[in-house]
Amino acid sequence: MAAGFCCEIVKVKIDADFSKEQLAELFINSACLIPVKQPSVSNRIIVILEDLEKASLSELLGEFLQPLENRGSDNPCTVKKVNGVSEAYYFHENCFLLGTIAKSRLQGSDLMVQQHFLWVQLRWDGEPIHGLLQRFLRRKVLSKFRGMMPPPCDPVCKIVEWILVVWHQLNSCLSRLGAHEALVGPKHFMSCPVVPGHSHATVKWMSKLWNAIIAPRVQEAILSRASLKRPSTLGQLAVKKSPSQGQQAVVKAALSILLNKAVLHGCPLPRADTGSVHC
């Protein structure tokens, strides 16, 4: 059996305001970037950049691409820090960079970054993602019932099965509508409450998820596709003016389809109890 190795893992969530100078500070503080006058270090470091879709890859990573590919003291680079001071550093050979990005495709200058990395696509409809939510919620149910799985006819099992179907149907419908930017991973559904005897708590949670996360995300993706320009990141509409009546009608129709086909269909509670979920 192959043996692993010990390493230090550094995680950081990226947002639209995260600058390349801040990234440089991160590399320096985690000892990925070493001053040219200092010897290399032996410890292994993995830096994980999460939510890269919220930034411009070319602006954030562009200046680090060549130094990352040519690590070692023989290939120094000039790094500008947050305080404005520029110094010479090099990436040591035992540092590794990973990233996560919720984006179906890259465009423009970000395509230049793509060729410098190995990309692994994790699709919602393929393993290991496809069955992740089911496994996670199953463990939640087992925990609530002290290690014993209740029968399928139990209300808790029915409500959990409904949540699983909602997630699957939601992404299936979004894929057919061509709104791939709005596809939803399992993360948002993992907070689903499992409360024996209180199925209404799960429906209330689903209502909040729809109104606060899913519906705005779908609206934004549809308006982005309807405009001539595409936004550089999800979260920034290309058209700043209010959507036209035609665009509003398209959004409303799409939300109505999703709501009826993905959310309300199969709900184990009467429709009257799901009134807080709306377009």
Computed Rg: 23 Å
Kindly report how far apart the N and C termini lie: 54 Å
Global morphology: globular
> How many β-strand stretches?
6
What number of structural domains do the residues give? 2
Oligomer: single chain
Helix content: 25-40%
Strand order of the largest sheet: 1-3-6
Low-confidence stretches: 228-233, 235-239
Number of helices: 8
Major sheet size, sense and barrel closure? 3 strands, parallel
Pfam families: AAA_lid_NAV1 (PF25408)
InterPro entries: CortBP2_NAV1-like_AAA_lid, Nav/unc-53
Protein name: CortBP2/NAV1-like AAA+ ATPase lid domain-containing protein
Organism: Anolis carolinensis
Layout of helices and strands:
Blueprint: E1 8-13, H1 20-29, E2 33-35, E3 45-50, H2 57-61, H3 65-69, E4 77-80, E5 86-91, E6 95-99, H4 110-114, H5 132-144, H6 155-177, H7 199-226, H8 245-264
Parallel strand pairs: 1-3, 3-6
Antiparallel strand pairs: 2-5, 4-5
Helix pairs in contact: 5-6, 6-7, 6-8, 7-8
Describe this structure in words.
With 279 residues, the chain is of the alpha/beta class. The chain folds into 2 domains: 8-114, 3-Layer(aba) Sandwich (Rossmann fold); 132-274, no CATH class. The protein is 39% helix and 11% strand. The protein has 8 helices and 6 strands. It has helices at residues 20-29, 57-61, 65-69, 110-114, 132-144, 155-177, 199-226, 245-264; strands spanning 8-13, 33-35, 45-50, 77-80, 86-91, 95-99. The strands form 2 sheets. It has a 3-stranded parallel sheet, with no helix packed on it. A 3-stranded antiparallel sheet has the order 2-5-4, with helices on one face. A hairpin with a 5-residue loop joins strand 4 and strand 5. Helix 6 (155-177) packs antiparallel against helix 8. The protein is globular and about 70 Å long. The N and C termini lie far apart (54 Å). The model is unreliable at 228-233 and 235-239 (pLDDT under 50).
